[in-house]
Automatic annotation (TrEMBL):
PANTHER family: FAD-BINDING DOMAIN-CONTAINING PROTEIN-RELATED, HYDROXYLASE, PUTATIVE (AFU_ORTHOLOGUE AFUA_3G01460)-RELATED. InterPro entries: FAD-bd, FAD/NAD-bd_sf, FAD_monoxygenase. The keyword Lipid metabolism does not apply. This is FAD-binding domain-containing protein. Belongs to the paxM FAD-dependent monooxygenase family. Keywords: FAD, Flavoprotein, Membrane, Oxidoreductase, Transmembrane, Transmembrane helix.
Length: 448
């Protein structure tokens, strides 16, 4: 006889992965969900996300209200309002250096990414606020920083996952899903603290700089007007320069990524200190003196405010995304460099698969089969995206063989990469995961 009590799930981390998953799972009466988030409240960190088609498909699978929460906060790229929702837009790639440089207003991009109708961008803080509004307040606890996790056998209900927070309080659940970001504590539990893939790495030593200014300030500083309405990425050998319009087109997130500039060896070989290592490091505009004037105007803008600067890392491949009744998702499982613009999209794909599987998990004894199916389907694809994002960085910085010498090769690279990330059949991904879980159920019933 199975238990009729709801299966309780603790989600650690209330970022994009944790809140999107919670917003979907909360609708299932056979589940009891609680989100534990370390910060006391989300703050506006200003990062702009340009979500690609697979992110939107994943949100639609998570539920119309999840998709709507995003639509309510996003702006149309290119129009600045919501009236041209059907206009086709893409991230546009330009050369900003060398013989193929073409960033002037009348030029065509060398390649494009993520072409879609109604392409939008959203600030991370806005998206989090929208997702949070879908989860009842008493189901989210802020100021709860996970420090420890362990599993125990409970004589009454079987296995339980126990956890402890920095404030000394403890909790327990049938299942823990770790969406606690790149420095995940849950990852440490799953892989072991000494595992070589436990901590983020900085293979190409990328240092990124980001600032947010009003669109007026950007134009006054000489930024091409059309770059305040599109998502341009301007390439060159020191690294790339990009812009994302924010807040209904009134503000602009401008960024510069410098390859080889993150010199913090400690965070390469050992635990990265935090995402702000290198914070406030000045940006050497001289590195960009051979870039086009349009690119240099963006670099100049970013150099004025380097308070938001950090070494970006990613994860080497984890051999597994779950153990027992504990799993990880989002950046906790597969943090990637931001250059393929698909980290949040992969986090949302994870959430869509877990949501689909947990629709069928009516008893705690079924959790491991669900997590095994999730691991089998999501690990290969999300890790391929981590590898791809590294390659994006190197192509952007003219460091991937001689690809940059031939615009045709650059175009082909982005076309194929875009097909892999954005055009994936997510319904099929959900179905594949479900059939793996059902197979595992059948195997277990055959074995008694
Ligand atoms: P996070 O958003 O990092 O959330 C983790 C949460 O867990 C946080 O709220 C954190 O406070 C909490 N937490 C951490 N530790 C603990 C703990 N011990 N206990 C409890 N809670 C904890 N992706 C795209 O798809 N498109 C883009 O255009 C894009 N642009 C990007 C630009 C930049 C500059 C960067 C850095 C990333 C970009 N990404 C983009 C990637 C995207 O932001 C991440 O992949 C995404 O935010 C991952 O979501 P997450 O929920 O897994 O992790």
């Amino acid at each position: 006889m199975g238990s009729t009590a709801p299966v309780n799930i603790a989600i650690i981390g209330g970022g994009i992965a944790g809140l999107a998953l919670a917003a979907a799972l909360i609708k299932k009466p056979h589940l009891d969900i609680h989100v534990y988030e370390s910060v006391p409240a989300h703050s506006d960190v200003g990062a702009g996300l340009a979500l690609h088609r697979n992110a939107l498909k994943a949100m639609a699978l998570l539920g119309p209200e999840v998709h709507q929460a995003y639509l309510d906060k996003a702006i149309n790229i290119g129009s600045g309002d919501n009236e041209e929702a059907e206009a086709e837009m893409a991230t546009e790639i330009f050369f900003a250096h060398g013989p193929h440089a073409n960033t002037a207003a009348d030029q065509q991009p060398v390649a494009e990414l993520g072409r879609a109708k109604g392409r939008k961008s959203v600030s991370r803080a806005d998206l989090l606020a929208g997702l949070l509004s879908l989860v009842p307040k008493d189901r989210v606890s802020f100021g709860k920083k996970l420090t420890r996790i362990w599993e125990e056998d409970d004589n009454v209900s079987g296995k339980k996952v126990m956890f402890e927070f920095a404030d000394g309080s403890t909790g327990e659940a049938d299942c823990v899903l770790g969406a606690d970001g790149i420095h995940s504590v849950v990852r440490g539990y799953l892989l072991g603290e000494d595992h070589p893939a436990r901590h983020p790495v900085h293979h190409d030593k990328w240092q990124v700089y980001r600032t947010v200014v009003t669109t007026e300030q950007a134009i006054e500083a000489g930024v091409e007007e059309r770059f305040t309405r599109t998502v341009p990425i301007l390439l060159g050998p020191k690294g790339h320069v990009n812009c994302i319009p924010l807040n209904k087109g009134t503000r602009l997130s401008a960024g510069v990524a410098v390859r080889g500039a993150a010199v913090d060896e400690a965070s390469v070989d050992g635990p990265a200190k935090d995402d702000n290592s290198g914070k406030g490091r000045s940006l050497d505009v001289g590195l960009y003196k051979d870039y086009t004037p349009e690119a240099r105007a963006i670099v100049g803008l970013v150099a004025k405010d380097t308070s938001a600067s950090w070494a970006v890392g990613d994860h080497d491949h984890a051999p597994v995304y779950y153990k027992g009744r504990v799993a990880m998702l989002g950046d906790a499982a597969h943090a990637s460099l931001p250059f393929a613009g698909n980290g949040a999209a992969q986090a949302l794909e994870d959430a869509a698969v877990l949501d689909h599987l947990f629709g069928r998990v009516k008893q705690p004894s079924q959790i491991e089969a669900a997590l095994g199916a999730y691991d089998a389907v999501r690990r290969p694809r999300s890790q391929a995206v981590v590898d791809l994002a590294r390659k994006f960085g190197r192509v952007y910085a003219f460091a991937e063989g001689d690809i940059h010498e031939d615009p045709e090769k650059v175009r082909d690279f982005f076309t194929l990469a875009g097909q892999f990330t954005n055009e994936a059949d997510l319904l099929k991904q959900n179905e594949d995961a479900m059939s793996k879980m059902e197979k595992s159920f059948r195997g277990r019933s055959k074995n008694g």
